[in-house]
Specification:
The protein is an all-alpha fold and 275 residues long. It has two domains: 2-56, no CATH class; 64-274, Orthogonal Bundle (MetI-like fold). Helix content is 78%, strand content 0%. It contains 14 helices and no strands. The protein has helices spanning 2-33, 38-43, 55-63, 66-97, 101-115, 122-131, 138-145, 149-160, 165-173, 178-189, 191-207, 210-215, 224-234, 239-274. The two termini are 33 Å apart. The mean pLDDT is 85.
Length: 275
């Protein structure tokens, strides 16, 4: 039995290593070609560079407003995720503490709204934002992304059900108000799921392409993903430069995901153990 388990583990390890190599090959291809001239990249696309060629990075920073687009993306992502977590957690808290028929009906309505494809509502959403002058506005995009609170609400609601209701009752007896219980007791207890959901939503907003494309038009409001899309024509004959821009855009979110990976696992494991 022990020998059979060892063989299974060895086979699993080999399979996982092979899959990791397949998944990592495109990233290797992109990164190594950012360090080559266009001619070298064309002659040897998978070979290692003979020397570090950083002119591609310098050229991209000179020709593309990376810093401005990064600030736009950072503002949109930070404000949107904050609103999604705040609205989603407050809605889940209200559903847990007041289990009325009206709340159950409202929860069912949220579930139906969550099932509607976002793409099918683009035209009416555009018309609504246009009426309040929020089209081609970073704040308008934040309003759009705040609808992701529904996703946060469902995940937080499932986790919040594992919180002992006796703690909330004890806080009420001690004279703590509704918002005080939410802010001082509930939020610290559900911190693992807040971090997990926050990471998922951050990666969604940062990498989103459809929403900025539809609702933003001014060059000054472009996000990093839109800069990559615009650069397709600009660097049509200079693929190393285009790959360099792609690496610059992906680098922050990859570092963020690696740094937060431990918190994601902790949040999912904590929810699984409590449930």
């Amino acid at each position: 039995m022990h020998r059979q388990n060892s063989k299974m583990l060895a086979l699993l390890s080999i399979t996982m290593i092979a899959l990791a190599v397949i998944m990592g090959l495109p990233f290797y291809y992109i990164i190594v070609n950012t360090l080559k001239t266009q001619q070298v990249a064309g002659n040897s696309p998978f070979g290692l560079p003979s020397r570090l060629f950083l002119d591609n990075y310098l050229s991209v920073f000179r020709t593309v407003p990376i810093l401005r687009s990064a600030l736009n993306t950072l503002y949109i992502t930070g404000a949107s995720v904050f609103l999604m977590l705040l609205i989603g957690s407050m809605a889940a808290y209200g559903m847990i503490t007041r289990r009325t028929a009206l709340n159950r009906l409202f929860g069912a309505a949220l579930l139906l709204a969550f099932m509607v494809p976002f793409q099918s509502t683009l035209i009416p959403l555009y018309q609504m934002l246009a009426r309040v002058h929020l089209v081609d506005s970073l704040n308008g995009l934040v309003v759009m992304y705040s609808a992701g609170s529904i996703f946060c609400y469902f995940l937080i609601l499932g986790y919040m059900r594992t919180v002992p209701f006796e703690i909330i009752e004890a806080a009420r007896i001690d004279g703590c108000g509704t918002f005080g219980i939410y802010w001082r007791i509930v939020l610290p207890l559900i911190r693992p799921i807040l971090i997990t959901v926050g990471v998922f939503q951050t990666m969604w907003v940062w990498n989103d392409f459809i929403t900025p494309t539809v609702f933003l038009s001014s060059p000054v409001n472009k996000t990093l993903v839109l800069q990559v899309y615009s650069a397709v024509g600009q660097f049509a004959i200079n693929w190393p430069a285009f790959m360099t821009l792609t690496v610059i855009v992906l680098f922050p979110v990859v570092v963020f995901f690696i740094a937060m990976q431990k918190h994601i696992v902790n949040g999912l494991v904590s929810g699984g153990i409590k449930g």
